[in-house]
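Human: For the file, kindly provide a plain-text protein record giving the amino acid sequence and the backbone structure tokens, at your earliest convenience.
Assistant:
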Amino acid sequence: MSVVLEPVVSQATVAVRGTPILGLCHFIRNELGAERAAAVLRELPEPYGSRFAAASFLASDRVPLSVVNQATKLAARAKGEPVESFAERAGHFGASEGIRTVFKPLFLILSVANALAVAPMMWTRIYDTGKMQVESTKNHAVIHVREFPGDEAGCSRITGWFRYIGKLSGARNLKSRHDACTAKGGAECRWEFDWE
């Protein structure tokens, strides 16, 4: 008999900063159109439904991860796309939007392995919990996230974020795996990446 480990924290207690949420709002609006996106996002509990529909967040705002994941799932359902692929595309889009100012020149000159080494610092700028550890070599990286509640929407957005960082840093033929997840009873969320 297998035992499912409960995450140390729940999605409702984890807060996400406003900048990546704005990226998600913009992505959903691009995918569904303004009216349809607003209608879908108003299904979220208030005050978040109105704020997501209007993309009204400051960079310093904090929103429960559970609400961000619910917004992703609602939009994926409205688009008629599996949550994992929709969320990964949303993460890729959000990273491109969030990094395009101060950090983009940095990622353009770093190697993929070095860019991934910066990921733990970026993590703490987005989430208020979870510990990230990166192990990387020239063409391979393993990223561990502990003390964080995994979820198909959240983990797929994170995968998209990592994929964007790799692409921006020059990775070719990037392949990723997310074989361990706290949402599936794992002790941690773990991603593995290989590239040329």
Notes: The beta strands are 15-17, 62-64, 131-136, 140-146, 175-180, 189-194. The two ends are 41 Å apart (CA to CA).
